[in-house]
């Protein structure tokens, strides 16, 4: 999900001659959808899969990283929509945390499959 939201936001940013407000709405839609999917999966995990031996820290780390990766995109969309100066700079922490969260999740998946 982390890499997908970076890809989609980067793609809509490349659309020529669109207004800043249109871009803001696109960013908000993508970020809200990504956030909703992540929270839904996390709630499902807490309700159904929590008792299957996974350490609590594993869930907390993934939940925090997914929030750090998505919330800057929501802030960027809101600030761009409200025409706040420098609102587009909120995309940078969103991209950085998305890549960190995505790479860490991929690494854990790769290492844990071999065990």
What keyword list fits this structure?
115 residues; elongated; mainly alpha; 4 helices
Mind explaining what this structure looks like?
This protein has 115 residues and is an all-alpha fold. The protein contains 4 helices and no strands. The relative contact order is 0.16.
Topology:
Blueprint: H1 2-13, H2 20-49, H3 56-81, H4 91-114
How would you briefly describe this protein structure?
With 115 residues, this protein is mostly helical. It has helices at residues 2-13, 20-49, 56-81, 91-114.
Give, in order, the helices and strands: HHHH
Number of strands: 0
Helix content: over 70%
Question: What is the 3D form?
Answer: elongated
- Give the distance, in angstroms, between the N- and C-terminal Cα atoms: 24 Å
Supply Rg: 16 Å
Parts with pLDDT < 50 across at least 5 consecutive residues: none
Percentage of residues in DSSP E strands: under 5%
What is the tally of helical segments?
4
Mean pLDDT: 87
SS-based class: mainly alpha
Largest sheet: none
